[in-house]
């Protein structure tokens, strides 16, 4: 069972830049990712289904109540320097399941967002406090925080605004979950076409 945790919501808008609002993007991407996973053998559920504020502890409680065996936490980021930033994964130290999934997803995400560099942060000393708290809310459940893109970067923003941008990102995440070991589905995203038109 995969829990998809869309960051922010309600009065908590997350970051904003280039006309994009993080809380909206996290929810839209999570819904599309849910459609991708609906075609798989894995169960999935969204911790946040609407534009509502949720505490970190509520998110952890909800994922545990779902019986989640993996949590995928969706965020976007921004930086005062519009040239800085690439897709970044955060996992707790020793969470090998989440690290493996991050590496798989990283290979699938378009190079325009990753700059062809896989960044997996595992050392709590290097983390901003928020990333740490976000992961801690899920305690013992393997959890992967993805800062998918930087809204402050103009070509990231253009990618996200493009008609197929979020669908491409969702497919990349779904494909990363579909490892050789699990072979979750034949068609990684049979419902994707719904989002491409
Ligand atoms: Zn965020």
Cα-atom radius of gyration: 15 Å
What structural class is derived from the secondary structure elements? Answer: alpha/beta
CATH architecture descriptor? 3-Layer(aba) Sandwich
Largest sheet, strands/sense/barrel: 6 strands, mixed
Record field, number of beta strands: 8
Strand line-up of the largest beta sheet: 4-1-5-8-6-7
Q: Which regions contain 5 or more consecutive residues with pLDDT less than 50?
A: 183-197
**Element pattern in H and E:** EEEHEHEEHHEHEHH
Q: What bound compounds does this protein have?
A: zinc ion
In percent, how helical is the residue content? 25-40%
Mean pLDDT: 89
> So what's the overall shape?
globular
- CATH fold-level assignment: Aminopeptidase
What does this molecule look like?
The longest helix is centred in the first third of the chain and has 17 residues, at 22-38. 38% of the residues lie in helices and 17% in strands. It has seven helices and eight strands; from the N terminus they run βββαβαββααβαβαα. It starts with a strand and ends in a 20-residue tail after the last helix. The chain is globular. It has a six-stranded mixed sheet with strand order 4-1-5-8-6-7, sandwiched between helices. The protein has helices spanning 22-38, 56-66, 96-108, 111-114, 129-136, 154-161, 165-177, and strands at 2-6, 16-17, 20-21, 44-46, 70-77, 88-91, 120-121, 143-150. Mean pLDDT is 89; it is low at 183-197. With 197 residues, the protein is an alpha/beta fold. The chain has one domain: Zn-dependent exopeptidases (Aminopeptidase), CATH 3.40.630. Bound molecules: zinc ion. Zinc ion is lined by residues 7-8, 14, 22, 75.
